[in-house]
Amino acid sequence: MFNSKFLILLVFTLSFIPHSRAEVLSADIRSPAKDSELSQESQEQHHEDDHEHEEEIEKIIVQATRSGRIANEQPIRVELINREEIEEKAAMRPGNISMLVAETGGVRMQTTSPALGSANIRLQGLYGRYTQLLADGLPLYGNQASSIGLLQIPPTDLGRVEIIKGSASSLYGGSALGGVINLVSRRPSDEFTGEMLLNATTRNGQDLTTYIEAPLSDSIKGSLTAGAHYQTAQDIDNDGWIDLAEYERYTARPRLFWEGNEGETLYATIGLMTENRVGGNTANGTVADGTFFKQSQESQRIDSGLVFTMPLLDSLTLNARASTMLQEHKHGYGKVIEDDQHESYLVETSLAGYNDKSDWVVGLAYQSEIYASDTLPKFNYSYEVPGVFGQLDYELSDQLTTSLSARLDEHSEYGTQFNPRVSLLYRPSDLTIRASFGRGYFATTPFVEEVEAVGLSKLEEIKNLQEEHAETASLDFTYTFEHIETSLTLFGSNVDNVTNLEAFSSNNDATFDRIKLVNAAGESKIRGSEVLLRYRWEDIKLTASYLYLDATEESENGQGRRKIALTPQHSAGFVAMWEQHGSFRTGFEAYYTGPQRLNDNPYINESRPYWHLGLMGEITIGRVSWFINFENLLNVKQTDEHPLLLPAGAPNGQWTTDIWSRNDGFIANAGIRIKFDG
């Protein structure tokens, strides 16, 4: 199955787990004095009620920025999704985190495979492959997480989610060109506690997730989350094509947290996942040429990670982190079978320090990304990326703080890459202003969004591709008055060397039957703004958001510019939640998606706007909660506008149009959540 590399690193990881007193803290890079402050805050937050939680949320130390600062003192804008919101979304979609992140302003889930339902995360209009997905600051899902991977991560053991929009290559290298989403795990308390969630849907899907946490000794605490998830194939519009892919998935993740007598901390985790997923034609269905087309993917993933911190002086801390990920896939695209393996490794060490005016960190990192195909070895690659990075946050005054970060990578394929970022924070009274500018790069692989849906069999061998570059900038205004918080963000990006698929004829005739990867001419330019309004009155919380995007690219014929496909210019959302902690919660949500330009769609050139409406409720009596959730109340389906199946196969081997709307129709789910302790 998996080779010896993982076993060696697994033994290395477990050998670092010491056996002495005290509780383990989070895996942030920060000073020892700040560690002790967070220890108290994290324990208080674990038991506080909902209103207290709202007041304390701004005291959370953000991991993803590396600076060790609390959220409202970060020069870099970080969106936080707290545990309360995670519990709400877990009742709506307990099997994966797609809904959890999709309903954040400026974030869009883009379906990349109509057959299997896979999707990636687009931040402020940038391509989904530019988003780095981390778990406790570690790339446990790979430096380029596959779109299907997003659907294989349950939210059960998450404490919060941190989102950085815009280039974060100065912090994390060539996988974070568009931003970072960091999934932060729950920290165990001093007592044995846990929960179990059972869920079932009207589309014959079932989920079972469990989470337990406990002190294992005076010095070590642990947690374990595990899940089983099932979905039967659903052809909702009876066109012979599966709209909800069939899958059977099992996951497990133990975590250990330790703290030594001298302030040392260690966090270690192992993750296991196996899934079989099937889509394409139903038993009696066919595609345009009259043949039966089945698409499938068998996945197995194992990962391991650790983060170690040790104070050297009163204001100096040594940090080390390492991770590995091994993943095996067996893809089926009709009669074509593709077997492959992905490997990802990280080793990093750094020093962090602080004084009255500044926080700083400098470090060395080594990343490796390996792809090996048993079927098509001409696409194999092995990227080795040693790098050095640094960051300085400096308080110029009580109101003005600046953050400077930079990273120098020596990429084995794309050479030397220097990526800086500068951010400013200005806080006069109740107004907070943040400005940020950064440069980043993306190390191109064969796995752009379109290739994930069709495989590599029709792709020409890659030649003369250049890395993708971007400059991103943002200006953010946040104003808080009593129970009202308002935010306006202006942002822009220029992206060079965007990698696209280009169809061509292998026989030099008029029939396009092959595809190749090329760097697009000109720049992709994205300009936009986000508006956010939050209001809280007693037990009622209202949130409204609006996103405007002007995203254009150079036309294929070189004559002017056109809108980037599958990128709505206007989108908006509204959420109303009424909750009495420990008693009930009920909520309503409405999301609007405007028209989008469509690529290679023979039926329409531009999509119609649509609304997504949802309604949920949960009642809690003691340790037991019953919940019910209704999604897509208007029963919106893309196939109500045009057929999903193409009248002829595309040059890349795809038999359907792209997904620009929903294809699952109305769906309801209900279940029970049981919390327990020792």
TrEMBL record:
Alphabetical UniProt keywords: Cell outer membrane, Membrane, Receptor, Signal, TonB box, Transmembrane, Transmembrane beta strand, Transport
Primary subcellular site in the record, as a coarse category: membrane
Entry annotated with the keyword Transmembrane: yes
Stretches the record annotates as Disordered: 31-55
Residues covered by the TonB-dependent receptor plug domain: 73-180
Membrane topology: Multi-pass membrane protein
GO terms for MF: siderophore uptake transmembrane transporter activity
Record-level GO BP terms: siderophore transmembrane transport
Domain TonB-dependent receptor-like beta-barrel stretches: 222-633
GO cellular component, as recorded: cell outer membrane
Entries under Pfam families matching the protein: Plug, TonB_dep_Rec_b-barrel
Subcellular location: Cell outer membrane
Sequence similarity: Belongs to the TonB-dependent receptor family. Hemoglobin/haptoglobin binding protein subfamily.
Name recorded for this polypeptide: Outer membrane receptor for ferrienterochelin and colicins
Organism in which the protein naturally occurs: Thalassotalea piscium
